[in-house]
# Entry
Amino acid sequence: MAANPEVAAGLAARVDDLLFAMMRGAVPELPPAYRPEAPLGYWYPAAWEAMGTEVGAEIDILEDLRFRHFLVADLFDTVLLCPQCSRADLQIIRGCPSCHAETLQRGETLFHRACGRVALERDFLRGIEYVCPHCQQRLGARGADYERADPAYACTNCGQLLLEPTEECRCLHCRQVFRRAMAEERRLYIYRLNPDVVSPPAARSNPPLDPGVYRRERVVEPFSGLARLDYFLAQVRKEISRGRRQDTTFAVLLLRLDGFTALQERRGRTFAGRLLSTLGRELRSQLREHDAAAVYRWGEYAVLLPATDARGATAVAEKLVARVRDWAGDRAREGGEPLLGPAGATVGLALFPADGASCEDLLRRATRLAAHTEPVYAL
# Structure
């Protein structure tokens, strides 16, 4: 839905006022403050008051200003977010890897030298003495009868002793339970005015500031029009969860531009970045609406194809490589210089669950295949 022009222009003017205040020194920096009910657990009260947005929306606008080089930032903290609802209301759950019970007790441990029993210190205590819970032998001197071992956890349900329990997260907002590795990471910054800024972005000379656009830019990288990498990885993990629940498959592609490094050496990083951005938009136009694509590394794109088998993924891979070749060929004919190598791009394909059970395994598999000099598909 298009933004109300008056609302967008008013927001742009308020952002200008905030930047002017920072230029005058009235607002030297914008640090985050803890606010449990905010989506990320933090907010920027000075920015929120100046912009008049809903709580949390000011963060997306500050990030856009950082991307456009009006602000510089120092890392303040990294928060973990629920992959389902993107909120930071998470509770860490420690459980037993054997019986999955959450009834763990942590404490000092003792090692009985005679019988080899290791247990929590509380299990050895009999009044003021130590008695081995296994062989019932009374323990005397430390070093002769027993030793202190590392602190550990004991499961009160099955009795297992473990050094490290399993860790999961429970979202207190949507009640989703997931492995800690599946949590999204979001960085929070302390923002300051870029010293190179002479004047803020006037509302009349720039596209209106649409709050909906900023919510979209939480998941879209502005320079390429593709998904932000952290959002892309979170989507892959969501597909893994869906695949396990519904016994479905999906594909991940890794597309590497042929000759991109040589192009950067010839034409510079700025030119190479513009090419990466332009070509990214071309590739996105070849995908379905529910597919996702991101710049994975410099000169590489990662593509997520939900509900896609090997045959369908191979057809998409071939279409993307052909589009890269056609695009590079058209530019070469216009400029007289080949922009990319003769292959256009190489692509690796990984299927869930056949080629990997985690996001990292799938991307590692696809990356390894894309390293070949000719297009390779993992069928």
Observations:
- The longest strand covers residues 71-81.
- The chain has three domains: 5-85+182-216, 97-162, 229-370.
- Residues 67 and 339 are 27 Å apart (CA to CA).
